[in-house]
Amino acid sequence: MSTDPDAEGESNVESGAARESPPGDAPEEREAERDAAATTEETRSASAETTRPDTEGLLAVRDLDAGYGDLQVLDEVDLDVADGEYVVIVGPNGAGKSTVMKSVFGLTSFMGGAIEFDGTDIAGMVPEDIIHYGLGYVPQNENVFAGLSVRENLEMGAYILDEFPDDKLAEVFERFPILEERQEQKAGTLSGGQRQMLAMGRALMLDPKLLMLDEPSAGLAPDLVDEMFDRIDGINESGTAILMVEQNAKEALRRCDRGYVLVNGSNRFEDDGDVLLHDEEVRQEFLGG
Ligand SMILES: Nc1ncnc2c1ncn2[C@@H]1O[C@H](COP(=O)(O)OP(=O)(O)OP(=O)(O)O)[C@@H](O)[C@H]1O
User: CATH homologous superfamily of domain 9-28+55-286?
Assistant: First the structure.
Protein backbone atom coordinates (compact mmCIF):
# COMPACT_ATOMS: atom_id res chain seq x y z
CA MET A 1 0.00 0.00 0.00
CA SER A 2 1.20 3.52 -0.70
CA THR A 3 2.59 5.45 2.24
CA ASP A 4 0.81 8.50 1.04
CA PRO A 5 -2.88 7.93 0.44
CA ASP A 6 -3.49 11.47 -0.64
CA ALA A 7 -0.75 11.98 -3.15
CA GLU A 8 -2.53 12.85 -6.38
CA GLY A 9 -2.37 10.16 -9.00
CA GLU A 10 -0.53 12.32 -11.47
CA SER A 11 2.06 13.27 -8.91
CA ASN A 12 2.80 9.66 -8.18
CA VAL A 13 3.38 8.99 -11.83
CA GLU A 14 5.61 12.00 -12.08
CA SER A 15 7.56 11.13 -9.01
CA GLY A 16 8.68 7.98 -10.76
CA ALA A 17 8.79 8.79 -14.44
CA ALA A 18 9.56 12.44 -14.82
CA ARG A 19 12.39 12.39 -12.35
CA GLU A 20 14.24 9.92 -14.55
CA SER A 21 14.08 12.09 -17.64
CA PRO A 22 15.80 15.44 -18.18
CA PRO A 23 13.67 18.43 -17.24
CA GLY A 24 11.63 19.87 -20.06
CA ASP A 25 11.77 23.49 -21.13
CA ALA A 26 9.33 25.76 -19.39
CA PRO A 27 6.58 27.00 -21.73
CA GLU A 28 7.05 30.49 -23.14
CA GLU A 29 4.09 31.91 -21.25
CA ARG A 30 5.64 30.73 -18.03
CA GLU A 31 8.90 32.53 -18.87
CA ALA A 32 7.02 35.72 -19.65
CA GLU A 33 5.14 35.48 -16.36
CA ARG A 34 8.36 35.06 -14.47
CA ASP A 35 10.03 37.94 -16.28
CA ALA A 36 7.11 40.15 -15.32
CA ALA A 37 7.45 39.10 -11.72
CA ALA A 38 11.19 39.70 -11.78
CA THR A 39 10.75 43.27 -12.90
CA THR A 40 8.67 43.98 -9.83
CA GLU A 41 11.59 43.53 -7.50
CA GLU A 42 14.09 41.05 -6.26
CA THR A 43 13.29 38.87 -3.30
CA ARG A 44 13.76 40.88 -0.20
CA SER A 45 13.29 40.77 3.46
CA ALA A 46 10.51 42.98 4.72
CA SER A 47 12.82 44.33 7.41
CA ALA A 48 16.15 46.05 6.84
CA GLU A 49 18.10 42.98 7.85
CA THR A 50 17.34 39.55 6.49
CA THR A 51 16.57 37.15 9.27
CA ARG A 52 17.81 33.67 8.74
CA PRO A 53 17.31 31.03 11.40
CA ASP A 54 20.03 31.29 13.98
CA THR A 55 19.57 27.74 15.20
CA GLU A 56 20.80 24.65 13.44
CA GLY A 57 19.45 24.18 9.92
CA LEU A 58 17.13 21.24 9.37
CA LEU A 59 15.74 21.83 5.87
CA ALA A 60 17.70 23.84 3.33
CA VAL A 61 16.22 24.35 -0.13
CA ARG A 62 18.37 26.18 -2.66
CA ASP A 63 17.53 27.37 -6.17
CA LEU A 64 14.80 24.78 -6.46
CA ASP A 65 13.26 24.34 -9.89
CA ALA A 66 10.39 21.87 -9.97
CA GLY A 67 6.99 21.25 -11.53
CA TYR A 68 4.71 18.69 -13.07
CA GLY A 69 5.82 16.74 -16.13
CA ASP A 70 7.37 19.37 -18.38
CA LEU A 71 5.59 22.27 -16.67
CA GLN A 72 8.00 24.24 -14.50
CA VAL A 73 6.19 25.82 -11.54
CA LEU A 74 9.01 26.72 -9.13
CA ASP A 75 11.84 28.97 -10.19
CA GLU A 76 14.92 29.08 -7.96
CA VAL A 77 13.06 28.81 -4.68
CA ASP A 78 15.09 29.13 -1.47
CA LEU A 79 13.72 28.02 1.88
CA ASP A 80 15.14 27.24 5.30
CA VAL A 81 13.67 25.60 8.35
CA ALA A 82 15.79 25.36 11.48
CA ASP A 83 15.52 22.65 14.10
CA GLY A 84 12.28 23.25 16.02
CA GLU A 85 11.33 26.27 13.95
CA TYR A 86 7.79 27.14 12.79
CA VAL A 87 7.79 28.45 9.24
CA VAL A 88 4.86 29.35 7.01
CA ILE A 89 4.55 29.93 3.29
CA VAL A 90 1.84 32.32 2.16
CA GLY A 91 1.00 33.87 -1.19
CA PRO A 92 -1.70 34.13 -3.83
CA ASN A 93 -3.57 31.16 -5.28
CA GLY A 94 -1.44 29.22 -7.72
CA ALA A 95 1.82 30.75 -6.47
CA GLY A 96 3.31 27.29 -6.00
CA LYS A 97 3.10 27.02 -2.20
CA SER A 98 1.86 23.44 -2.19
CA THR A 99 4.30 22.59 -4.95
CA VAL A 100 7.20 23.59 -2.68
CA MET A 101 6.13 21.09 -0.04
CA LYS A 102 5.32 18.39 -2.59
CA SER A 103 8.75 18.93 -4.12
CA VAL A 104 10.51 18.57 -0.78
CA PHE A 105 8.57 15.33 -0.29
CA GLY A 106 9.48 13.95 -3.72
CA LEU A 107 6.06 14.28 -5.32
CA THR A 108 6.90 16.53 -8.28
CA SER A 109 9.34 16.59 -11.16
CA PHE A 110 12.64 17.75 -9.74
CA MET A 111 14.32 20.03 -12.28
CA GLY A 112 17.28 21.48 -10.45
CA GLY A 113 18.65 22.98 -7.27
CA ALA A 114 19.33 21.37 -3.91
CA ILE A 115 17.17 19.98 -1.11
CA GLU A 116 19.03 19.02 2.03
CA PHE A 117 17.26 17.60 5.04
CA ASP A 118 19.11 17.04 8.30
CA GLY A 119 22.39 16.80 6.43
CA THR A 120 21.13 14.42 3.72
CA ASP A 121 20.62 15.31 0.07
CA ILE A 122 17.00 14.24 -0.53
CA ALA A 123 16.52 15.88 -3.94
CA GLY A 124 15.05 13.31 -6.31
CA MET A 125 14.22 10.79 -3.58
CA VAL A 126 10.80 9.13 -3.40
CA PRO A 127 8.50 9.73 -0.38
CA GLU A 128 8.91 6.14 0.81
CA ASP A 129 12.61 6.83 1.32
CA ILE A 130 12.25 10.40 2.55
CA ILE A 131 10.06 9.48 5.54
CA HIS A 132 12.95 7.44 6.95
CA TYR A 133 14.89 10.66 7.51
CA GLY A 134 12.26 12.19 9.79
CA LEU A 135 10.20 14.27 7.40
CA GLY A 136 6.40 14.05 7.69
CA TYR A 137 3.88 15.48 5.23
CA VAL A 138 0.13 16.02 5.64
CA PRO A 139 -1.46 16.95 2.30
CA GLN A 140 -4.55 19.10 2.10
CA ASN A 141 -6.92 16.51 0.69
CA GLU A 142 -7.54 12.80 0.98
CA ASN A 143 -5.05 12.57 3.78
CA VAL A 144 -6.54 9.55 5.54
CA PHE A 145 -7.51 6.03 4.46
CA ALA A 146 -11.29 6.53 4.56
CA GLY A 147 -12.13 2.82 4.62
CA LEU A 148 -9.85 2.02 7.57
CA SER A 149 -10.56 2.69 11.21
CA VAL A 150 -8.91 5.53 13.08
CA ARG A 151 -6.62 3.09 14.83
CA GLU A 152 -5.71 1.29 11.59
CA ASN A 153 -4.82 4.64 10.04
CA LEU A 154 -2.49 5.39 12.93
CA GLU A 155 -0.97 1.93 12.67
CA MET A 156 -0.37 2.53 8.97
CA GLY A 157 1.56 5.64 9.91
CA ALA A 158 4.15 3.47 11.61
CA TYR A 159 4.32 0.65 9.06
CA ILE A 160 8.00 1.25 8.24
CA LEU A 161 9.07 0.50 11.81
CA ASP A 162 10.09 -3.01 12.88
CA GLU A 163 8.49 -2.55 16.25
CA PHE A 164 5.16 -0.81 16.74
CA PRO A 165 5.68 2.44 18.69
CA ASP A 166 3.13 2.06 21.49
CA ASP A 167 4.52 5.18 23.14
CA LYS A 168 3.87 7.26 20.02
CA LEU A 169 0.31 5.96 19.78
CA ALA A 170 -0.22 6.92 23.41
CA GLU A 171 1.20 10.39 22.69
CA VAL A 172 -1.10 10.84 19.70
CA PHE A 173 -4.11 9.79 21.79
CA GLU A 174 -3.04 12.19 24.52
CA ARG A 175 -2.68 15.02 22.02
CA PHE A 176 -5.94 14.22 20.23
CA PRO A 177 -8.27 12.51 22.76
CA ILE A 178 -11.08 12.36 20.21
CA LEU A 179 -9.00 9.89 18.17
CA GLU A 180 -8.81 7.52 21.12
CA GLU A 181 -12.56 7.82 21.66
CA ARG A 182 -13.22 7.14 17.99
CA GLN A 183 -10.45 4.62 17.38
CA GLU A 184 -12.77 1.93 16.02
CA GLN A 185 -14.68 4.33 13.79
CA LYS A 186 -14.00 4.40 10.03
CA ALA A 187 -11.93 7.45 9.13
CA GLY A 188 -14.31 8.29 6.31
CA THR A 189 -17.06 9.02 8.80
CA LEU A 190 -15.06 11.60 10.80
CA SER A 191 -15.73 15.33 10.60
CA GLY A 192 -13.30 17.55 8.69
CA GLY A 193 -11.50 18.65 11.84
CA GLN A 194 -11.23 15.12 13.19
CA ARG A 195 -9.86 13.88 9.87
CA GLN A 196 -7.25 16.61 9.95
CA MET A 197 -6.27 15.52 13.46
CA LEU A 198 -6.04 11.93 12.29
CA ALA A 199 -3.87 12.90 9.35
CA MET A 200 -1.53 14.79 11.68
CA GLY A 201 -1.61 11.95 14.19
CA ARG A 202 -0.69 9.47 11.48
CA ALA A 203 2.33 11.59 10.50
CA LEU A 204 3.32 11.99 14.17
CA MET A 205 3.52 8.22 14.64
CA LEU A 206 7.03 8.38 13.15
CA ASP A 207 8.01 11.25 15.44
CA PRO A 208 9.16 13.46 12.54
CA LYS A 209 11.75 16.19 13.03
CA LEU A 210 9.81 18.31 10.56
CA LEU A 211 6.08 18.15 9.90
CA MET A 212 4.86 19.76 6.67
CA LEU A 213 1.19 20.78 6.71
CA ASP A 214 -0.70 21.86 3.61
CA GLU A 215 -3.57 24.18 4.55
CA PRO A 216 -4.57 22.44 7.77
CA SER A 217 -7.39 24.92 8.41
CA ALA A 218 -8.99 24.50 4.97
CA GLY A 219 -12.65 23.61 5.10
CA LEU A 220 -12.92 23.89 8.89
CA ALA A 221 -15.76 25.79 10.53
CA PRO A 222 -14.47 29.18 11.78
CA ASP A 223 -14.72 28.18 15.43
CA LEU A 224 -12.49 25.15 14.77
CA VAL A 225 -9.79 27.06 12.95
CA ASP A 226 -8.30 28.56 16.11
CA GLU A 227 -8.38 25.20 17.80
CA MET A 228 -6.46 23.65 14.89
CA PHE A 229 -3.82 26.38 15.05
CA ASP A 230 -3.54 25.85 18.83
CA ARG A 231 -2.89 22.16 18.25
CA ILE A 232 -0.21 22.95 15.69
CA ASP A 233 1.38 25.34 18.21
CA GLY A 234 1.35 22.45 20.68
CA ILE A 235 3.12 20.11 18.26
CA ASN A 236 5.75 22.76 17.62
CA GLU A 237 6.17 23.48 21.33
CA SER A 238 7.00 19.85 21.93
CA GLY A 239 9.98 20.22 19.59
CA THR A 240 8.74 19.31 16.11
CA ALA A 241 9.62 21.85 13.44
CA ILE A 242 6.65 22.93 11.31
CA LEU A 243 6.50 24.02 7.67
CA MET A 244 2.97 25.10 6.84
CA VAL A 245 1.14 26.47 3.82
CA GLU A 246 -1.92 28.50 4.81
CA GLN A 247 -4.61 30.56 3.11
CA ASN A 248 -5.38 32.02 6.50
CA ALA A 249 -2.24 34.07 6.11
CA LYS A 250 -2.64 36.61 8.90
CA GLU A 251 -3.24 34.02 11.57
CA ALA A 252 -0.43 31.83 10.28
CA LEU A 253 2.05 34.73 10.27
CA ARG A 254 0.92 35.73 13.74
CA ARG A 255 1.76 32.29 15.08
CA CYS A 256 4.91 31.32 13.18
CA ASP A 257 8.58 32.20 13.72
CA ARG A 258 9.30 33.09 10.11
CA GLY A 259 7.35 33.39 6.91
CA TYR A 260 7.89 33.34 3.17
CA VAL A 261 5.72 35.07 0.58
CA LEU A 262 5.80 33.14 -2.66
CA VAL A 263 4.61 34.72 -5.93
CA ASN A 264 4.61 33.13 -9.39
CA GLY A 265 6.75 30.24 -8.25
CA SER A 266 9.49 32.45 -6.79
CA ASN A 267 10.44 33.91 -3.41
CA ARG A 268 9.16 37.45 -2.96
CA PHE A 269 9.54 38.24 0.76
CA GLU A 270 10.93 36.43 3.74
CA ASP A 271 11.17 37.58 7.31
CA ASP A 272 9.95 37.01 10.84
CA GLY A 273 6.19 36.44 10.88
CA ASP A 274 5.56 39.63 12.87
CA VAL A 275 7.62 41.72 10.49
CA LEU A 276 5.75 40.41 7.43
CA LEU A 277 2.46 40.91 9.21
CA HIS A 278 3.20 44.59 9.79
CA ASP A 279 4.94 45.33 6.49
CA GLU A 280 2.80 47.80 4.55
CA GLU A 281 3.51 46.30 1.13
CA VAL A 282 2.93 42.73 2.28
CA ARG A 283 -0.29 43.80 3.99
CA GLN A 284 -1.64 45.65 0.97
CA GLU A 285 -0.67 43.09 -1.64
CA PHE A 286 -1.11 39.79 0.13
CA LEU A 287 -3.01 40.17 3.38
CA GLY A 288 -5.99 42.16 2.24
CA GLY A 289 -4.81 45.47 3.74
N1 LIG B 1 -0.68 17.93 -10.30
C2 LIG B 1 -0.49 19.02 -11.05
N3 LIG B 1 -0.29 18.93 -12.38
C4 LIG B 1 -0.08 20.04 -13.14
N5 LIG B 1 -0.07 21.31 -12.63
C6 LIG B 1 -0.28 21.45 -11.33
C7 LIG B 1 -0.51 20.33 -10.46
N8 LIG B 1 -0.68 20.79 -9.19
C9 LIG B 1 -0.56 22.12 -9.28
N10 LIG B 1 -0.33 22.52 -10.55
C11 LIG B 1 -0.13 23.89 -11.02
O12 LIG B 1 0.98 24.42 -10.34
C13 LIG B 1 0.77 25.80 -10.03
C14 LIG B 1 1.00 26.00 -8.54
O15 LIG B 1 0.02 25.25 -7.82
P16 LIG B 1 0.07 25.11 -6.25
O17 LIG B 1 -1.06 24.21 -5.87
O18 LIG B 1 1.43 24.75 -5.81
O19 LIG B 1 -0.23 26.59 -5.81
P20 LIG B 1 -0.61 27.15 -4.39
O21 LIG B 1 0.19 28.39 -4.19
O22 LIG B 1 -0.51 26.08 -3.38
O23 LIG B 1 -2.11 27.57 -4.66
P24 LIG B 1 -3.45 27.37 -3.82
O25 LIG B 1 -3.36 28.33 -2.69
O26 LIG B 1 -4.50 27.75 -4.81
O27 LIG B 1 -3.50 25.93 -3.41
C28 LIG B 1 -0.64 26.14 -10.48
O29 LIG B 1 -0.55 26.77 -11.73
C30 LIG B 1 -1.30 24.79 -10.61
O31 LIG B 1 -2.28 24.79 -11.60
Answer: P-loop containing nucleotide triphosphate hydrolases (3.40.50.300)
